[in-house]
Structures are given as structure tokens and as C-alpha cells.
Amino acid sequence: MTDELGRVRQMWHLLEPLHAVLYYSPQAFEEAAALGYRTDERWPSYFAWRAAPLGEAGAVQVGSAFYSFSPAMVREHVPAAWRVAAPKAVIAARLRAADRTYRDVLGEAVASKELAEAAALARRAAENADPAGRPLAAAHAALDWADEPHVVLWQAATLLREHRGDGHIAALLSAGLDPVEALVSFAAVGAAPVETFASRGWSETEWTAARERLARRGLLDADGAASAAGRELRADVERCTDEMAAAPWAALGPDDTDRLSELLGAYWVAMLGTGLLPMQNTLGIGKV
Which pTM was predicted? Predict the structure, then answer.
């Protein structure tokens, strides 16, 4: 089981940059600007791109699905996003953005038989991501697949990412960690500097209150670092997340999963090589 979960985590690490590049690429910002979104910062388009499959969802629904963002930050962008462009238009634009981004980053490789093979394997895994109880995964699973293999690869990476993310939220809830506590406890185990988590919009007062709550549970020490119990709890959360993300890879099978891992390596390197993705992030993945 340990080896199997290690492969589940490896596939997440390989696919995450292929999904996340959309939130940073110049092509995506151009498509967002054409719709009317501000692009002086990434959040107006981020909330639109990621929430559009949910339809004209309100702040409470989006905040619940995204989980780690402060309610105040979500309210700043939702439902305002749908006054700029309807979700259907946003979904079409983000496919154009994925198409243009992958063509720019991968060049001639978008037409290669290797990419077509990777896209087919990733799609098979994604189609075995059970959406039950997973709102973002379900919303993405309901979308039509593109015709171009490189766009299919982005769609599959995105569906698998949201499937895993929905499961991660379930693991956090089971551990009794509310949205801000989830971030504080993750920072406390050294996943990323505390400053990195400021991007989620929590105030200093809210962050401090969460630290105090976790300290009362014995999960943090006096300096705000994770105690042994806090590290154990976070390890349990990550293990549970991996377990709930395993089904697509079990369905794909070990040989095809190994083949997809082999194929994705070059695309993973290419996405990281753009320099677009932040070196520090709230996911605890280095250089993503």
C-alpha cells in the first residue's frame, strides 16, 4: 500500500504543473482580459477559471468548494466574476487559454504521438475519478472533452486535480481542521513559509486565532511549530488524501500508470521551465 500511495502522490506532482500553468500564463491573462477581467493580479481570472464549471455559483458555494480562501476574499471575486462573463463563456475561454499555452510551451510536441498517448491515458484515469461527494470534480466531469489531445491532457490533469482536492477537503474535515486551521497547520510542518499562505486572504487576527485554537488542541508548540501530535495529524491528512485519490490510478493499472508517468516527465519539465509557476506555494510541492 505504501508503494501504491507513493505512486498516487507522484502522479499528482507530475500533473499539478500541467493544470496550474493556466493560472499564470500570459495567454490565459490575454483571454481573461478579452472577457473583461482585470489582469493586474491573478485572482480575478483565477476565481473565474476555477469556479466556472460550478455555474453562477455564489460566494458561499465557491468558498466551500475552494475551502482554504477567506470568505472575505471569495466575496471580493464571486459573484462579481459572473457579471463580467457568464460561466459558459469563461469555460470556452479557458480552453482557448490552455490550447494557446500548451502550444507555446510544448511547441511541436503538441502534435506528437507521445502527447496523444499521454492524453488518452490521462483521460482514462480522469474518467475513473468518481465524482460522488466531490463538487468540483463532478462539475468538471460534466464538461465535454476537447478534440485536441493537448487540451484533453490539460482537462484530465484538471479533473484529477480537483478530484484529489475534493478528497483533501474531506480529510481536513475529518481531522477537525477548518479552512484557516488547515493552512496554519500546514505552515507549521514547514510545507511553505507563513508568508506564502497570505495569498489566501486571512487577516493576521484570523491567523493568530487559528494558531491559538490549534495550540489548545496540542497541535502546535509555543513557537507556533507543529508538535509531534500536529505532525502526526497532518501526516494522517496527507495519507487519507492519497488513499481517496487512488481509484483513478488503480483503474488505469500499474503498467499504464507507469507509462503515463514516463510520458509526462518531459511536459512537467517544460512547464516548470517556463518560470511561470511559483517556487513556493500553498500545496507543499517544491518548485510548483
Answer: 0.95
User: CA–CA separation, 253 vs 77, rounded Å?
Assistant: 40
d(CA 61, CA 81) in angstroms, rounded, equals 14
Cα(279)–Cα(276) distance, rounded to whole angstroms?
A: 9
Q: Cell 507563513 belongs to which residue?
A: 194
Peptide bond into 79 cis (omega under 30): yes
Yes or no: say if 100 and 27 are a contact pair by the CB < 8 Å rule: yes
Q: What is the predicted pLDDT for the residue at 3? A: 83
Percent of the chain predicted with pLDDT > 70: 96
**Residue where the block lists cell 466531490:** 134
In angstroms, the first-to-last Cα distance of the chain is: 26
pLDDT, tens digit, 9 for 90 and up, residues 241-285: 999 999 999 999 999 999 999 999 999 999 999 999 987 666 555
